[in-house]
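Morning, I've got a small favour to ask if you have a moment. You're getting the sequence in one-letter code plus the fold written as tokens. Thanks so much in advance, here it is:

===
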Amino acid sequence: MFGIKPRIYVMPVGSTASSDVLSDYEGMLNSLRKLNADLVIGSPLNDEVSILQRVEEVRRSDFDAVLILSLHGFTGHLQALFSDALGLPTVIWTLPVRYSLPTAASAVGYLRERGLKVRLVHGPPTDLGIIKSIEQFVKVAAVVNRLGKVRIGVVGGIIPPMVASHYDRIILKNKFGVDVVHIPEGEVLRTYNEISDDEVSNKFKDLSSKYLVNAPEDGVKKALKLYLALKKVQESLKLDAIALECYTELFQSFNVNPCLGYVDDQVIGCEGEVLNVVGLLIARWLSGRGALISDPFSVSKEGVLTFMHCAAPASIAESPSKVHVVLSEPPSIIKFRIPVVHCRPEIPLTTVTIFRIYGKLIDKIHVTHGDVVSYDLSKALQINVRIDNPSGFVEEVVGNHYVVAFGDIREELKLISNWLGMKYIET
């Protein structure tokens, strides 16, 4: 639903004049049809002039990565030339025949010294395990490429207690390519006042037809009006996500919570957090599913990590009939006791990956994983996850919000950490 489909250029290097090479080449292409990516397959080349001409052709398009097929030996210089000239993350598929591996190994050694992201995979054309390895690599390449185009809007700031959530916007831009855009609250208010009653009523009808609404209509409409205003601001600024200072800023200004955009899977950074918004986007793109931010609330001796939060995106539920829009109360520590309206999806009982990007240089990521064993929507969005190393998690925990992604994406996070210069810490 939210996954990225990488765009890959396939460059076969070598001559297919002999029948055995041609047979292997066709077998590799047949296996690549199972790859979840958009492939552009070039014709095989075996000389430097043609390689350089092909480079110029490929540069005219936006590819996430290159896949080189090493068809036989004495082509390492051509493989290195093609990848180095483009500067894109590169996978080289080598065969167990015709010196395909040693010539590609030479190219890999050269390219790594040049600082390029390279993965060598080895096996016959029918080895589908290779497809899995290629898919993981090119998906990460696509995520990193996409991050470089991300724009995150911020209304307000980070709330005072969240001292571990501050970040340097310049480091974020230089390291991840992410732009942060300040949105004045006055702009939100101006747009809010332009939202018509008809727009709100139509949105309420749409919401009521899809989800289980157990909250007063006027309260839901009030929250929807603020969401529609934030959505319009987000669209006008071409933002991928938005971070909101909720209870200490927008909540007091509008007398309603600003996060009902979860009903439409708006990507929201709670309480002004931006780095967890980056984590949410990464989680969605890697898993292809919705993800959420939540507070690690408690850890039992039996290894159950309990998360507690206000709300989460509707897409997390297995169907619209399992999404609840409810009237709730702010957390007890919030002095403003105005009823709020939250989106609370029923949580699938499945494997999750839990992580947080952090550090004053944005150079660390703490990761764990487990299985959702139960949830409770009655007073808050409570999720109980059984993890293998509860004491290790407590020892390394570094903030009051973590991203909860559905599925096991640890290997992809390791690769992203390596590419973006983050220390990977798993407990």
Remarks:
- The domain at 151-426 is CATH 3.20.14 (L-fucose Isomerase; Chain A, domain 3).
- The two ends are 29 Å apart (CA to CA).
